[in-house]
């Protein structure tokens, strides 16, 4: 399989078969150092701060023998002089073979892809999509559980505004998993997203819950995301809600022995540090898996036939 | 002469926009950019009973045919409207407004954080997910728009 010059804008651009192939490619390239992208240049265009995504793309490209150029401070560039994203992308096209873009505006990657023939890789556009994070999450589940179909997966946190969650749920539903959506009432998933999850040809079920305790015994995977303080009018209300979603060892004692705990990071205090050294924690591995997925994608996009 | 004809007189030449959702006639007028500066002769009827027992609005504009982007805009706020082209008091052509699969530069995205709401050189573009009631999806940020869309028309 090759994705020659294909944009990676949305996870929805991939079929289930393609996703499986990407996961298998990631397994093949994990840990490998090669020079198949020697002579190729990846441009990292970050209009918002990022540690993990920017550095993991850089590591991935370097482990494949390619070079990386970066723009990470918009103040020091022509952006501060008022240059449009459309122009910036056309300029950077001349210096690179592919562009990784993070931008605060939703739809930025889709727009950028219309202005350049070089493949655009969306590294987060506002609260819309972050497809390489989604693939990393799917890869982590697949690698740990050997299979995605049929798993019971709990997703806890801000399901209304959380970017990671939205991108992840749809492909998960395509893999016919059973999904428990766990959140406070005011942060429940939006109606249109729920409709998509329950669409025809999906064989798993989707249930909404307000507490992790209710379903912890059923779960094979618990995916934890942050509940953001700014979503609440009263800070007391936030403290109360956030506290009730904290994952600790007491809770995990009730879980299956082989449950895995994931988190897109950074975390604040939604997972107690005592869990880090337990057999359940996979969030640091998950973060490291981002390199394998990005290597697989870069090879599929930029590698020779 | 029937009571109905008395209410809104027949026009000789021009366009009759019928079956507008009740209360939306003034929004249609706005779409057609009819204001204090325009010379168009216009008749408006609001909340008149229609043949199916429901209420509807009607707008008649004399000596004018609508542009296709005006029809698209009307379809966005009044998906059941019909357009009648009148010549010499007769209906020369009659058709239902129908949204195409995609619309470009007729309505802006309601998501303030969408890239199309910046000064980037891109057109507003939407896929029509459902025609009545209208449901649109921004091709950039995937925002779904439904309900009263009149405030977002360009």
For the structure shown, list the relevant keywords:
heterodimer, A: 305 residues, alpha/beta, Rossmann fold, 5-stranded parallel β-sheet, 4-stranded parallel β-sheet, 9 strands, 36% helix, B: 154 residues, alpha+beta, 5-stranded antiparallel β-sheet, 4-stranded antiparallel β-sheet, 3 helices, globular
Please explain how this structure is put together.
The complex is a heterodimer of chains A (305) and B (154). Helix content of chain A is 36%, strand content 14%. Chain A contains ten helices and nine strands. Chain A has a five-stranded parallel beta sheet, with helices on one face. In chain A, strands 2-1-3-4 form a four-stranded parallel beta sheet, with helices on both faces. In chain A, α6 links the parallel β5 (152-156) and β6 (178-182). The mean pLDDT of chain B is 90. Chain B is α+β, with helices and mostly antiparallel strands. Chain B is 14% helix and 35% strand. In chain B, a hairpin with a 5-residue loop joins β2 and β3. Classes of the chains: A alpha/beta (305), B alpha+beta (154). The interface between A and B is medium-sized, with 17 and 17 residues.
Which pair of chains forms the biggest interface, and how many residues does each contribute?
A-B, 17 and 17 residues
Please give the count of helices of chain B.
Answer: 3
How many domains, in number, for the residues of chain A? 2
Number of extended strands of chain B: 9
- How many β-strand runs of chain A? 9
Structure annotation, total helices of chain A: 10
What would you call the structural class of chain B? alpha+beta
Helix content of chain B: 10-25%
């Amino acid at each position: 399989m090759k994705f020659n010059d294909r944009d990676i804008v949305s996870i929805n651009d991939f079929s289930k078969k393609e996703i499986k192939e990407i996961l298998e490619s990631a397994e093949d390239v994990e840990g490998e150092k090669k020079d198949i992208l020697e002579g190729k240049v990846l441009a990292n265009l970050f209009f918002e701060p990022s540690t993990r995504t920017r550095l993991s793309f850089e590591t991935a490209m370097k482990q494949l023998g390619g070079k990386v150029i970066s723009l990470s401070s918009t103040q020091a560039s022509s952006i501060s002089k008022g240059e449009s994203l459309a122009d910036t992308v056309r300029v950077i096209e001349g210096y690179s073979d592919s562009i990784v873009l993070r931008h605060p505006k939703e739809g930025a990657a889709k727009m950028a892809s219309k202005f350049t023939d070089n493949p655009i890789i969306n590294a987060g556009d506002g609260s819309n999509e972050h497809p390489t994070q989604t693939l990393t999450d799917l890869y982590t589940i697949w690698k740990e559980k050997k299979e995605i179909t049929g798993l019971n997966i709990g997703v806890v946190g801000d399901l209304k505004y959380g970017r990671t969650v939205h991108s992840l749920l749809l492909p998960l539903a395509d893999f016919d998993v059973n999904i428990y959506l766990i959140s406070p009432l005011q942060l429940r998933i939006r109606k249109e997203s729920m409709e998509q999850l329950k669409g025809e040809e999906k064989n798993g079920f989707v249930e909404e819950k307000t507490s992790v305790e209710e379903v912890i015994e059923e779960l094979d995977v618990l995916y934890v995301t942050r509940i953001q303080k700014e979503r609440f009018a009263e800070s007391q209300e936030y403290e109360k809600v956030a506290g009730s979603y904290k994952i600790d060892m007491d809770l995990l004692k009730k879980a299956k022995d082989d449950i895995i705990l994931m988190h897109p990071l950074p975390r604040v205090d939604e997972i107690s540090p005592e869990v880090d050294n337990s057999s359940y924690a996979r969030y640091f591995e998950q973060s490291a898996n981002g390199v394998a997925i990005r290597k697989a994608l870069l090879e599929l996009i930029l590698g020779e036939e | 002469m029937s009571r109905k004809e008395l209410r809104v007189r027949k026009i000789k030449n021009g366009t009759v926009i019928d079956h507008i959702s009740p209360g939306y006639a003034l929004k249609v007028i706005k779409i057609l950019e009819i204001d204090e500066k325009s010379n168009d002769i216009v008749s408006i009827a609001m909340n008149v009973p229609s043949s199916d027992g429901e209420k509807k609005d009607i707008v008649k504009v004399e000596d004018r045919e609508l542009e296709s982007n005006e029809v698209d805009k009307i379809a966005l706020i009044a998906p059941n409207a019909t357009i009648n082209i009148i010549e010499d008091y007769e209906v020369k052509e009659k058709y239902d407004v129908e949204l195409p699969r995609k619309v470009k530069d007729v309505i802006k995205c309601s998501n303030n954080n969408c890239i199309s709401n910046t000064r980037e050189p891109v057109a507003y573009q939407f896929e029509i997910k459902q025609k009545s009631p209208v449901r649109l999806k921004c091709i950039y940020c995937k925002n779904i728009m439904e309900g009263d869309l009149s405030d977002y028309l360009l």
